[in-house]
Design a protein that fits this description.
single chain, 2 strands, about 75% helix, mainly alpha
């Protein structure tokens, strides 16, 4: 395997990690007004992701940074065309982070309610934007022979890319519910489990539809395997929820998004950004890659840096692995 192909696979892995970890993270924020009946229950929900949400965002930074360094032409072509969704993504992430920090600073129900709205909005918009951007890189852009985008700033917004946004957001919603069923106790746990049971089949439908469209347009024989794994793993998740095994259901939903990412990027390879005008104008892994020297340096840095990040993040999840319930929340309000 040559270095450009290796780094294409590494970037695929980074996106997989981001969608898996930040997926349930966003889902918790989406469900804040749905499953949290009072401030104490909403604090329980926020505390499930409090120690990890900022670490999960590192995967997005690494995925985008690696794309910039390993495939500068891919980075320039994709993000210059999708800068409006990316701007929405960044503003939503900033607002969400500020809301987590400021929500408990004032002992006022109105203050907390306003920041809760920011959390909810900041949890819905990013997966919609990320799904749209990933669908754009799979379905392509109107790129001319000079590598320039043809059309308006909204060229990346089409029905198939919107489907990608809906697919990622819907998956995040039920993944967050499964995570809450795994990490909480009491009424929040029961509501989260019931929500996941009820909506998982519906929420996975857009993702399956997206993968079928990709398979029909650009799929290979082997990409049928991860595509078929998505509904199978979804069915396993529902079955394990029915059995009360929330951890196994959460892992099954993780398999869903892992298989989906493999199917999407597998169908994309060896291209990184197809041209909808002329296939000859498409950017390929070989065309968009940095110099061999740059890729070698990146490989050595990641060889030592990646294990450190994985160990630290794994340790964080292990330390905060226990369930959280309303009995853990002080009756008198204190900043969270």
């Amino acid at each position: 395997m040559d270095l450009p192909t290796l780094w294409f696979c590494v970037i695929t892995l980074f996106w997989l990690g981001y969608l898996f970890l930040e997926g349930f993270d966003f889902g918790v924020g989406m469900l804040l007004p749905v499953l949290g009946r009072d401030d104490t229950e909403r604090r329980v929900m926020i505390n499930t992701i409090g120690p990890v949400w900022d670490g999960n965002e590192v995967w997005l930074i690494v995925a985008v940074g690696a794309t910039f360094a390993a495939f500068p032409a891919w980075y320039a072509g994709l993000f210059s065309a999708a800068y409006l969704p990316v701007l929405v993504l960044l503003l939503a992430l900033i607002g969400r982070g500020v809301a987590f920090e400021y929500r408990g600073k004032v002992d006022s129900a109105r203050w907390r309610a306003n920041w809760d709205r920011v959390i909810v909005l900041g949890s819905w918009l990013p997966p919609l934007a990320v799904g749209l951007v990933l669908a754009t890189t799979v379905f392509g852009l109107p790129i001319d022979a000079d590598g320039d985008r043809v059309g308006s700033a909204l060229a990346a917004v089409r029905w198939e890319t919107v489907l990608g946004g809906v697919a990622i957001a819907a998956f995040s919603l039920v993944h967050g519910a499964a995570f809450l069923a795994l990490k909480t106790d009491g009424e929040v746990r029961h509501r989260a489990r019931a929500f996941a049971l009820r909506f998982t089949p519906l929420a996975l439908a857009p993702l399956v539809g997206l993968l079928l469209l990709v398979q029909w347009r650009d799929g290979l024989t082997w990409t049928l395997v991860p595509l078929l794994l998505v509904p199978i793993a979804g069915a396993v998740a529902v079955a394990r929820l029915l059995a009360g095994r929330e951890g196994q259901a959460f892992a099954a939903l993780g398999t869903v998004i892992a298989a989906a990412v493999v199917a999407l990027f597998g169908a994309l390879y060896p291209e990184v950004l197809p041209s909808t005008l002329d296939a000859a104008n498409s950017l390929t892994v070989a065309d968009a890659a940095s110099s061999p020297y740059t890729l070698r340096v990146m490989s050595w840095v990641s060889l030592f840096g990646a294990p450190a990040v994985l160990v630290y993040q794994g340790w964080t999840y292990w330390v905060f692995r226990k369930r959280i319930g309303t009995h853990h929340i002080p009756k008198v309000h204190t900043p969270t």
